[in-house]
Amino acid sequence: MALPKNPKVDLKLKYRKVFEISIIISLLLLILAFKYFPHFQSESMGVQAVQELLDVEDVEITKQETAPPPPPKPPIPIEAPADDDLEDIEIEDTEIDMEAEIAPPPPPPEEEEEVAIEFFVAVEEMPEPIGGIEGIQKKIVYPEIAKRAGVQGRVYIKAFVDEAGNVKKAEVIKGIGAGCDEAAVAAVLKTRFKPGKQRGKPVRVQVSIPILFKLN
User: Fold this and answer.
1) DSSP H/E element including 182
2) How do the pLDDT tens digits run along the chain, 216 residues long?
3) By Cβ atoms counted within 10 A, which residue in 3, 47, 101, 210 is the most buried?
């Protein structure tokens, strides 16, 4: 069973009075403070900073100069005609006679059509040089350049022989240079052949001829 509190020691009964008295005392202290200390002086605190001195140099403004253009090329001197030459020149009349009859232009020249001639590659009787290969070798003129350079070797020539045994054309199949190829072609063109035959009739045949270039 709870015992009743003594009203003399119960703090809750005096809480309101104590709170009101404390508020009144606070207000009185504020009033006295504003009455006797109306102004408050604030002390200014200055901060001294170290002043740095900077040396400012005057910078000269430079101007970029463009390179001058190259000098013009000197004019090429042109020889002027002499006065005597000018006197010899006759200027013809340039007026056009509208009533004159103009001849039609000549017809273009007719182009000759080259007839392709066929040469057999292999026949029953192949062409043979008259005098043999030795006869062609005798017609060879050894080039001086080839002699000095010591060029030797074998040149193969393709000869186109017609029905009469004449060489119509000669081509280099394999050469050695230094003028030997041209000398071999010239010797073959000067050579007469025994014509090739097919079924007993002379025909056109192409034949390969080896020509030897050798220094003694």
Assistant:
1) helix 180-189
2) 555 666 666 666 677 777 888 889 988 888 888 777 766 555 555 556 556 666 666 666 666 667 777 777 777 666 665 655 555 556 566 666 666 666 666 666 554 443 356 888 888 889 999 888 888 888 888 998 888 888 889 999 999 999 988 999 999 999 888 889 999 999 999 999 999 988 889 999 999 999 999 887
3) 210
The model's pTM: 0.45
Residue 34 tokens read as: 């504003």
